Amino acid sequence: MAPGTVTARATGAIIAAISVSMVLFSYLLRKHHSKDHSSKNTKSFSVSKKSPRNGPVGAIGNTPLIRINSLSEATGCEILGKCEFLNPGGSVKDRVAVKIIEEALESGKLVEGGVVTEGSAGSTAISLATVAPAYGCKCHVVIPDDSAIEKSQILEALGAHVERVRPVSITHRDHFVNIARRRAAEANELALKNKKEEQLFVGGKKQSNGHIYEGGTQESSFSSNCKGGFFADQFENLANYRAHYEGTGPEIWEQTGGCIDAFVAAAGTGGTVAGVSNFLQENNPNVRCFLIDPPGSGLFNKVTRGVMYTKEEAEGRRLKNPFDTITEGIGINRLTQNFLMAKLDGAFRGTDREAVEMSRYLLKNDGLFLGSSSAMNCVGAVKVAQSLGPGNTVVTILCDSGMRHLSKFFSAEYLSQYDLTPKATGLEFLESR
């Protein structure tokens, strides 16, 4: 074979090898770049390599923050909703329930085998009933009888003891919160009695004044082996505030990368708006925080006028029933310890019609099936966006889904009684205030 032919073939082989190497390198580079690009831009769709969470309690928190597309496009702002309805117990109150129980156990105010009592319109009660068994505790709940019936059904299914009572003023001894406080005291009295009786037992029989006899435990609404009670007191217990200051607020900050202009939410106990507003403003004082308040609540007046009543009420024309609203779990006519912690720049008033129409609008345009307080929060988000103008990022809380509001907020028959049948096709239902 001629030397030139060998040289040409060798050169061709070298060029071919280099070409193959370049192709392989290019493929690997593209694959690495694609993987890196995907991990940065589609992080929410990647498969987590973290170990499984420790039971339902471990799954609470770290909920998704989603863009509410229809509202964002309508306002020119980025309106984001924190999907708290995806917690195991179905609401934002899961965070509060865990924090309250854990702090009570750490302090010794609650022990394993004890009963957690609470007065609640539903969500906090459901969350407590959901997580209490994980701590070896039971739950006793007192709720107003005008709350949606499915809330009671859920509580009973979870194994909680449920008392439904008529709604009265918080100053009345039989307000559901006051009854729940008494139930905790009764459980503690029973536990103390049981302890004393145990000390009198000799060989499985009780001794009294030198005589031994068989005996049973006095009947009670609590089990005979009750280890005491603890009143959760979600309105005044600052564990509520801490749950959001230590959890919800930091999550929102991280998920937005600190790029947030405003936060808005309604207040029931005030824990959410207080905890989140404090954390966000500590990290950036320019983040503006607002309250959205339903009819009948005095908090709007407190934030905007410094008092809990309206001008009309100040003139002696206060409504006979100030709590004339179909939204549940939000709005209040007193200042709680949790709400007093809030750092607010202003407040907006929401109406029942706005909440109903917003819930249907979001269901139709975004596939979001939300409860009354979540819908009211979205009303607030739009009002904040409109007041600040386009280009801002506004975050709110999607507290719970519509699943526990079927008999009232999503009942056509119920809504028709109050002339609240939804009719809007767009956002024309929003009032400019």
UniProtKB/TrEMBL annotation:
InterPro entries: Cys_Synth/Cystath_Beta-Synth (IPR050214), P-phosphate_BS (IPR001216), TrpB-like_PALP (IPR001926), TrpB-like_PALP_sf (IPR036052)
Any one biological process term the GO annotation gives: cysteine biosynthetic process from serine
Keywords: Membrane, Pyridoxal phosphate, Transferase, Transmembrane, Transmembrane helix
EC number: 2.5.1.47
TM ranges: 6-29
Cofactors (names): pyridoxal 5'-phosphate
PROSITE patterns for this protein: CYS_SYNTHASE
Protein name: cysteine synthase
